[in-house]
Amino acid sequence: MKKTIQRLRTFLRRLFGRHARMAWVSHPIFMQHSPGKDHPDSPQRIAAIQTALKEQKIWPYLQNIEAVEVQDKQLALVHPRNYLSRLEANQPQEGKIYRIDDDTVMSHQSLSAARFAAGAVVQAVNLVIAKKAHHAFCAVRPPGHHAHSSKSGGFCLINNIAVGAMHAIAEYRLKRVAVVDFDVHHGDGTTEIFKDDPRILFLNTFETDLFPFPEGNIERGTNPNMLHTPLLRGTGSRRFRKIIRTQWLPALKRFQPELVLISAGFDAHRQDETGRLNLHEADYAWLTHKIIQAASECSGKIVSVLEGGYTLEPLAKSAAAHIGVLAGLPKAQYATAYDQYLNASRKRFPKLFR
Ligand SMILES: [Zn+2]
């Protein structure tokens, strides 16, 4: 019965509710963050996702919203002024780059792009809380989850998702915000920022022997709601889904979040050149669906934010699978077929699923 009502609501929303559609929040400035032609964070990433959304006919179901720049007082909830002043002082001139470390590079417009990326998340939070959008996806660059409160790294300058979470807490007095991070890399910046803040539930899968090499180095604090779920190299759909089913979903249901923010990195896909996990694009559709179900008390209040995913083709198809489900569209046929294949083999070969 509950499922039928939910389906009916989704159908009516798609039919009549222009403002109740999912929001795509982005800005042309994200193309101008240019860390160099050999850098994995290519300006083409967002365009590749957009092309896949159009090809799969998901695009017409989205409201296209232009991001606004974050305000200093919103940034101050996460990053101290002296850190931001340091970034500002290092901003290179047009045509030049400034290397913070081997991976993290600033071009002339990078800091502006980072400010609009954080602004996009703040705006998306405002949209879903005001019910002007039913879920939102922030197509932003540079990514954010490796940015600590006072340290950049791993391509990240400003922790976009942390700024969005703190804005939701400060502006709307939310008491329970879930941050879900399925990027192949450990969200070390988000961990540092929220390790002592019990208003945040942080669910985090990552490959163990990959940057930032979290094995034994994960920062621990007083927040009991930090759930780090390391994955060994080669982990595929079966093991991944089992971990989500047994660890993430019960934690999400127990926490009863008022808002869910997703650090959506798609670099755990088997074809992504960055990591060595073996996820399939159908896993992103499956996981998104499970998150929506487990966080049903905050219906419509999910804001997903692009983190990693660097090989364009798997990035585009994975993001499209994720966004299609967030937009309330039926799962693509290939995703349903893949789920059925996994379910059938779960029954036939239960040992594989232990
Ligand atoms: Zn990543």
Automatic annotation (TrEMBL):
Residue intervals of the Histone deacetylase domain: 39-325
Lineage: Bacteria, Pseudomonadati, Pseudomonadota, Betaproteobacteria, Neisseriales
Highest taxon in the source lineage: Bacteria
Alphabetical list of InterPro entries matching this protein: HDACs (IPR000286), His_deacetylse_dom (IPR023801), His_deacetylse_dom_sf (IPR037138), Ureohydrolase_dom_sf (IPR023696)
Similarity comment text for this entry: Belongs to the histone deacetylase family.
Pfam family, one: Hist_deacetyl
Protein name (database record): Histone deacetylase family protein
